[in-house]
Amino acid sequence: MRLLVVEDEPVLREQLVQALRDAGHTVEETGDGREAHYLGDAENFDAVVLDLGLPQMDGLSVLRRWRSTGRRMPVLILTARGSWQEKVEGMDAGADDYLAKPFHMQELQARLRALLRRQTGHASSQWQCGEIALDTRSARAAVAGQPLALTSHEFKLLALLMQKKGQVLSRTELSEHLYPLDEDRDSNTIEVFIARLRKKLPEGCIETVRGLGYRLVEPAASGA
């Protein structure tokens, strides 16, 4: 997943970002409400972790502005322990879930996985495409029961293709999910990763759609 973490407390933000990156996600971060609004408005994220007490613009205002302009990415808000008013206001503003501080990092990651499943229509953390199986919880993949040895970039690429199985994804979109904003993005490297994945996956499951990008299909349905 490509995630945005919005938290003004530096130590907690660093812990969140590191844990999510260790779990295989591409993560952008900010501790400023105005920058958060800009990033969420200008970039495409699979989900957002949003604290409510932010400088420049509070989290509820950020969330309301996103929703008023049609931004529909899942948002998990962080609230103060026992503050039921924050929870209600957050849900009414368009949040998809909430988590009270302090929290366990494993619970936050589980809630993000649940939000992604709802967003993509997956019923569990186990994703399947023909003989390809991917477990979003353990960050592992296999073909016909045999584990795949994947680099972090290869896993992220495969996860996105499986998340949006059957949809055509451009090289730019794939690149955005592989590299953070502060890294140089060369969409040409996507061809290299696609070539590597094709060698490890069943023949015909990654289609090239000329001039548009790539899509993952079950081999029996390839050539459509």
TrEMBL record:
Question: Which InterPro entries did the record assign?
Answer: CheY-like_superfamily, OmpR/PhoB-type_DNA-bd, Sig_transdc_resp-reg_receiver, WalR-like, WH-like_DNA-bd_sf
Where do the Response regulatory domain residues begin and end?
2-116
Protein's UniProt name: Response regulator transcription factor
GO molecular function, a single term? phosphorelay response regulator activity
**Which residues are annotated as modified residue 4-aspartylphosphate in the UniProt record?**
51
* A cellular-component GO term for this protein: cytosol
Q: Does the keyword 4Fe-4S apply?
A: no
- Domain of life here? Bacteria
Question: Which GO terms of type biological process are on file?
Answer: regulation of DNA-templated transcription
Domain OmpR/PhoB-type positions: 124-218
- Which UniProt keyword terms apply here? DNA-binding, Phosphoprotein, Transcription, Transcription regulation, Two-component regulatory system
**DNA-binding span(s):** 124-218
